[in-house]
Amino acid sequence: MTARRTRLEGLLARSRATVDALDHLVGGVGTGILALTALLWLAVVALLCLVGVGLPMAPVALRGLRVVADRERVRLSQRDPELVGPGPPPPGLRAALADPGVRGELGWVVCHSTLGLLTGVVAMSLPLAAVRDLTFPLWWRLLPPGEAEDAALNLWRVGDQRSALAVCVFAVGWTALSLLVIPGLERLQSWPGRRLLSAPPGGDLALRVAHLTATRAAALDAHAAELRRIERSLHDGTQNRIVAVTALVAAARRAVARDPASAGEILERAQGAAEQALAELRAVVRTILPPVLEDRSLADALSGLAAACPVPCTVTADLPGRCAASVEATAYFTVAEALTNVARHSGAGRVSVALSLRRDRLLVQITDDGHGGADERAGSGLVGIRRRAEAHDGTFMMTSPPGGPTTLKVSLPCGS
Ligand SMILES: Nc1ncnc2c1ncn2[C@@H]1O[C@H](COP(=O)(O)OP(=O)(O)O)[C@@H](O)[C@H]1O
Ligand SMILES: [Mg+2]
């Protein structure tokens, strides 16, 4: 029984990895088309340079290449460690062509516009073939005479509904092939970009330091904001209640001699106020580091959040181990803020939270089917998520077009 369940869980995890990889491969087809356009443009400019009229256009073409390569850097950074690009190319065409960063981009544009595009198209065609064969019995009669017969790879003739139904078997094969090869195709597609688009070793240190300085400042800001928030909630909530308790106890003391009956009533109010103060103190403590993370796993802690969310929420977690406590706390607060936003602003009917661990990075994705239009600049919650993620050297991405859906993706180095 447990062996079967483990196998089922393995299959589910593989399916999720395949869907994720396919999503990434489709994005790769988009940048592949951009890369192909850039390559053709570069080829035209190079030809024009040979006849002498292309030289003024060359810097513009290289700038266009940088824009396309930056798009790919952002795409690759969504799943894996962030790719920090090289600094601006040196002025002058000759110096720019000798620059390792520009050379890397030229190499990448050749690979990605051919191999990258091809792997993406092959990967997309596998699940499409599965859908085609699965639905074959529904539409095979619409095919021109003669064509339907080939649908079974000449293994049998498709002439009636039974033989058409048998074609569905191929869908199983296509699905199995998809599960088997799509994650590999995704790695193959990203490989040239990862190798060629990162800044050359040593050269990127200055950029890296600048990036870390900025994120450290953001981390300190986030920390100060957090302290202010805790101070405010202690001041406005707990402290006020305790002031009320002391005032009530003082009133009760005065009343004891004069009117013992009313003293009892005042003490009862004091007790109520003390209990409220305690409840608020507990709530504040919970927002500092949720105790549930201490006792149980991140997935359990998030299931607790999902259960408390007024919008139906599903949590899927594919986490073989635990991450550093601060990373888990960041993931927890991200989901807590995202679910609060879904409940308050989105008008969604469903929300899903997915957690996975890839190459030592914890990926958290929250998707709701609401009306979209989330704007980081309109409040402090989403900016807080970004700051917390960047303080961990992680990334935060949000897509929320008008009409929805809204997706938040946070990727954090696991740190364990
Ligand atoms: N899931 C969502 N769906 C639709 N709109 C959202 C969503 N999340 C946030 N928003 C919009 O983005 C704004 C900024 O969100 P946030 O930074 O969390 O601030 P706050 O929640 O304090 O208003 C919100 O005011 C809301 O209009
Ligand atoms: Mg909010």
Structural write-up:
- The chain is flat and about 105 Å long.
- With 416 residues, the chain is α+β, with helices and mostly antiparallel strands.
- Helices cover 68% and strands 8% of the residues.
- It is built from 13 helices and 5 strands.
- The structure holds adenosine-5'-diphosphate and magnesium ion (MG).
- Magnesium ion (MG) binds next to helix 12.
- Residues 326-416 form the Histidine kinase/HSP90-like ATPase domain.
- The chain crosses the membrane at residues 33-55, 106-130, 164-185.
Short summary:
With 416 residues, this protein is of the alpha+beta class. The chain has helices at 2-50, 58-77, 93-98, 100-134, 136-139, 161-166, 168-196, 205-258, 260-288, 291-295, 298-308, 325-346, 381-391; strands at 313-318, 351-358, 361-368, 395-399, 406-413. It folds into three domains: 2-196, no CATH class; 205-288; 292-413, Histidine kinase-like ATPase, C-terminal domain (Heat Shock Protein 90, 2-Layer Sandwich).
